[in-house]
Amino acid sequence: MATMSIGKAWEEAVAFVAREATLLFPVALLFVALPGLILQEMTPPELQAWFAAPKADTIPAMPPGFGLAMLLTIILIWFGSLALFALALRPGISVGEALRLSFARLPVLIGTALVVVGAVAAVFVGAALVGVVLSLASKQLAAAIGLLLGFGAVALVFFASIRLVLLNPVVIDSRAGVMDSLRRAWALTRGYFWRLFGFLIIVMLLSTIAGSAAQVIVGLLGGLIAGAEGARLAGGLAGAAVSSVVQVYMLVMLARLYRQAAD
């Protein structure tokens, strides 16, 4: 069984990013950071407040076309991430070749997402049906069991998201179809759940802290020059730029971890 080393992946990622930065960062900014920033600018204030603190009983109305814009943004970010994985996994490939390969493999990634979403929906629907059946016997029992089932469903989704963290490199590095890609990604992470979980937690914390700090500092400078609107825009751009840098290192590290597991 292959050994997955986070330290070795980090060393290889630092060397690779230093060597190929002129290829990686423009793709990340254009296809990962910029679409997210544009969507953020399109999001109404009431929706931004709800996303920060979701409440089931106070869901604001979604503007016409916003759902479509969100879907297109997600697909564009997936496209960009596949291109970054192509650059990381195939040294010597050009940006144009990486983008063409990403476009060719994007339908497979979308297909895997639909399968996963369908499975998640089935789990939650099943939990809801069990709760309804139990409520016919006892509302107290139904509430307790429903709470346990809800936590179980969330834990299952969380577990599956970690086990499928190598799905993108599997998709871009092979010609496998939807189900074969899912099975391959699941198999490669067997025995490495906690190691990958710790890695992703650290990356998430670093991205949040660095992005927030950049947003605040640059936002203050922008506010001194162009007022409140300038502060908001400058802070958003700085946060997106820093987050894209962290994401590049994370994706390259995932590519190296995939190579370790695949070898």
TrEMBL record:
Residue spans crossing the bilayer: 21-39, 66-87, 108-137, 143-171, 192-225, 237-258
Matches recorded under Pfam families: DUF7847
InterPro entries (UniProt xref): DUF7847
Keyword Cytoplasm: no
Domain DUF7847 as annotated: residue spans: 4-260
Keyword terms: Membrane, Transmembrane, Transmembrane helix
Record-given protein name: DUF7847 domain-containing protein
Origin species: Sphingomonas bisphenolicum
Lineage summary: Bacteria, Pseudomonadati, Pseudomonadota, Alphaproteobacteria, Sphingomonadales
